[in-house]
Design brief:
Strand order of the largest sheet: 8-9-11-10-14-15-13-12
InterPro entries: ACT-like_dom_sf (IPR045865), ACT_dom (IPR002912), HD/PDEase_dom (IPR003607), HD_domain (IPR006674), NT_sf (IPR043519), PII_UdlTrfase/GS_AdlTrfase (IPR013546), UTase/UR (IPR010043)
Helix content: 40-55%
Number of strands: 15
Pfam family, one: GlnD_UR_UTase
Largest sheet: 8 strands, antiparallel
GO molecular function: [protein-PII] uridylyltransferase activity
Keywords: Hydrolase, Magnesium, Multifunctional enzyme, Nucleotidyltransferase, Repeat, Transferase
Distance between the termini: 49 Å
Oligomer: single chain
Structural class: alpha+beta
Shape: globular
EC number: 2.7.7.59, 3.1.4.-
Radius of gyration: 32 Å
């Protein structure tokens, strides 16, 4: 059993490779002529992580007894529990497999002699390199397809909280492709910045292996702090930002490499005079060989400060990349923008943000060359800033750019599409600073809006959009929309229908840029309903009338159970504990409650729930209806079954203690008790049962799930002016949430 160093760094990786070479050589007492052991992968590159697998070829010329020799080599490796990828081949066989399998072709480019016949290894290395140079342009087409499939499965390392350092886009696997493009003579992909990023990612993987004690390439949250300490970094966030920056460097270099390969495959377009064809696409911008470059007049004259933004806008609109030399020239020679910006710069920014599919790649390119810092000094703080809420899929900077992209879907629904794009782009600029990010971000957004030259009335709108960007989703999911006070409060905060429409578009763009868990059809319907009601109030000054009870519930013999998609409605004889009984029954059938409403009409209690299946599979409707009828008529066997289950908090839930917040003047005929706690199956049942036992009457509940936590709002009928009564109810709720 070989012991390998757990140290971090290039020297440690070479030391591990040397130790493995020595051990592998010792496994066969005498190596015959015509046989060589060849390493590729990490061992071939002298980049062995503490717990790397071994990738080996037993190369031979057809000598007898090769199978026995292979067995004497492979079995000790397996016995040592080191992962092994192995093959036994002649040079023609290895080259034939590499010709048909691009991944094998890439691996042979890392081939290195370990022991045995050195001349044989040299023949393979030379032949594999020559074959790659001849076939690289064709092979890269297939390699690109494989790479895109891998990226789709593993995501973008730069924007993931728990990315795979090897397989995700911008990871170590992509550096292998960059080396292959360079070895094929297609492009200078291994520039100093790429090499430095590669070394840092290798160090990160070394530290991750050493910390976990086994081979693992995914940088999970619980290991970040330990890995950061081993690398001499301040904390896990510093590590994430460094990984993100390195991944972006690698991804951008690979984009350049793919383009160069495409250009060589398709050939350069030349005019009749033999010179490259140039096509004007915007003022001072032309297309050449599928890239955007500066017009000659723009280079010769004193540059316009808005030039870099105008080039970026043209690139995003045409979905063409900016040539690397052009980016470098703009970064070196484009003068800084004055304050306020000239109209051409402001118009270019809005065009860039509204360009659609071209926005994100163009923004990434400009950011890699430092152009964005020149436009927005605030960007340095936000670049690669992690967002630790599991609902978010992107770092803060990418989230803002993505929100602007998502907002383009709603620009035709608002009166000021330019302000929607800018509001989406600036809505979270306060994150990463102490305090509520909406409140902190509003003055920052004002400063940006003033600097880019917006008039005062537009600056005020941007300020309001940032300050209120969570208003609609929070109210829609946490408040009773049939309560006139809810509608009046939102109308007073928003002030006019133009701003309301902008906030509606921003809420949808923000949610879609956040990730799948931040949006649902139910949430969309709630927000749309809130917007419709507030529109009526702002347009007419009249608050919408509350909806009438479902006719199916107010007529016929009791109990009434009505199931319709995500709606569960029950009518029963009025009694205490009805809401809790229904909630418990729903939990028993693995249904998560999104909202609950209770009312009394002519002596009968009506409760309506909006639900969704906890694991995606709807329950048996007949069994659910039967259990509901028994529960609402007082059959305790249903809730006893629920109490017999272990209903723990969901995995990943925070360990923070539950908290209660009271809202005394937010409802017409009730006070609102807001519970902030870890999510758990049956939580609503436990809390409503506790409130019932404390003497509280719940007329409505709104359930808002934020990753593994919830913010549940309960409308308690009455004034609740007595401190002792409130303390009793609060203690009951906290006790129920803490179980």
């Amino acid at each position: 059993m070989i012991e390998v160093s757990q140290k971090v760094g290039a020297a440690a990786r070479v030391e591990r490779a040397a130790a493995l070479d020595m051990w592998l050589t010792s496994l066969v007492p005498a190596w015959p002529s015509g046989v060589a052991l060849v390493a590729f992968g990490g061992l071939g590159r002298l980049q062995c992580a503490p717990h790397s697998d071994l990738d080996l070829i037993l190369l031979h010329t057809g000598v007898p007894g090769i199978d026995e020799l292979a067995a004497s080599l492979w079995y000790p490796i397996w016995d040592s529990r080191i992962g092994l990828d192995h093959s036994v081949r002649t040079i023609p066989e290895a080259l034939s497999v590499a010709h048909d399998d691009v991944k094998v072709a890439l691996s042979l480019l890392d081939a290195r002699h370990v022991t045995g016949d050195r001349d044989l290894t040299g023949q393979l290395v030379e032949a594999a390199a020559e074959q790659w140079r001849r076939t690289a342009v064709r092979q890269l087409v297939r390699l690109r397809e494989i790479t895109l499939t891998r990226w789709k499965a593993h995501g973008e390392l730069a924007f993931l909280l728990e990315g795979d350092i090897k397989e995700a886009a911008g990871g170590l696997r992509d550096v292998g492709i960059l080396r292959a493009i360079a070895q094929g003579g297609l492009a200078d992909t291994m520039r100093p910045a790429v090499r430095a990023a590669h070394l840092r990612l290798l160090d990160t993987r070394d530290a991750l292996h050493a910390t976990v004690g086994r081979r693992v390439d995914r940088l999970v949250a619980q290991e970040r702090a330990s890995v950061a300490r081993m690398l001499g970094l301040d904390d896990g966030d510093t590590l994430l930002r460094r990984v993100a920056s390195d991944a972006r460097t690698i991804t951008h270099a690979l984009d350049d490499g793919w383009r160069m390969a495409d250009r060589l495959r398709s050939g350069r377009r030349r005019g009749a005079d033999g010179k490259p064809q140039r096509r004007p696409v915007a003022r001072d911008v032309v297309e050449q060989d599928g890239e955007l470059v500066l017009a000659r007049a723009a280079i010769g004259a004193r540059p316009d400060p808005s030039l870099s933004l105008r080039v970026a806008a043209a690139a995003a609109v045409t979905q063409l990349p900016i040539a690397r030399a052009t980016c470098e020239w703009l970064a070196a020679y484009c003068p800084p923008l004055p304050a306020p910006w000239p109209p051409a710069a402001r118009d270019a920014l809005v065009t860039l943000l509204g360009a659609g599919l071209g926005l994100v790649p163009t923004w990434e390119t400009c950011d890699r060359y430092g152009l964005v810092d020149g436009w927005l000094p605030e960007w340095t703080r936000m670049r690669s800033l992690p967002q630790h809420n599991p609902v978010h899929r992107f770092t803060l900077d990418r989230h803002l750019v993505q929100a602007a992209y998502e907002a383009t879907a709603f620009t035709r629904e608002v009166g000021r599409p330019d302000l929607l794009l800018l509001g989406a782009f600036l809505h979270d600029v306060g994150k990463g600073l102490p305090g509520d990010h909406s409140t902190v971000g509003a003055p920052i957004a004002v400063g940006v809006a003033q600097r880019i030259g917006l008039p005062p009335e537009d600056v005020a709108v941007i300020e309001k959009l940032v300050l209120l960007h969570l208003l609609l989703p929070d109210v829609a999911t946490r408040r009773d929309l049939s309560d006139p006070m809810t509608i009046r409060a939102v109308a007073d905060a928003v002030g006019d229908t133009t701003t309301l429409d902008l906030l509606h578009g921003l809420a949808r763009a923000d949610a879609q840029a956040t990730g799948p868990a931040a949006w649902s059809d139910w949430k969309g319907r709630l927000i749309a309903d809130l917007v419709r009601r507030v529109h009526i109030a702002l347009d007419t000054g009249v608050l919408p009338a509350p909806p009438k009870p479902d006719p199916l519930l107010v007529a016929g013999p009791l109990p009434v159970v009505h199931l319709d998609g995500d709606r569960v409605a029950v009518a029963a004889a009025d009694r205490r504990g009805l809401l809790a009984a229904v909630a418990g029954c729903l939990a028993l059938h693995r249904l998560d409650v999104l909202s609950a409403d209770a009312s009394t009409v002519d002596g009968r209690a009506l409760v309506e729930f909006r639900v969704q299946p906890r694991y995606g599979t709807p329950p048996d409707a007949v069994a659910l209806a039967n259990d509901l009828r028994r529960a609402v008529t007082g059959d305790v066997s249903v809730t006893q079954r629920l109490r017999g289950r272990a209903l723990a908090a969901r995995p990943g839930a925070t360990h923070a203690a539950p908290r209660v917040v009271w809202h005394r003047e937010a409802a017409t005929d009730a006070v609102i008790l807001e519970l902030r706690a870890a999510d758990a199956p049956g939580l609503l049942y436990r809390v409503t049962s506790a409130l019932d036992e404390a003497g509280a009457q719940v007329r409505a509940a709104r359930i808002s799930t934020l990753g593994t936590d919830v913010v549940d709002a309960f409308y308690l009928v009455g004034a609740w002016a007595d401190d002792a009564e409130r303390d009793k109810a609060e203690a009951a709720v906290l006790g129920a949430a803490g179980t």
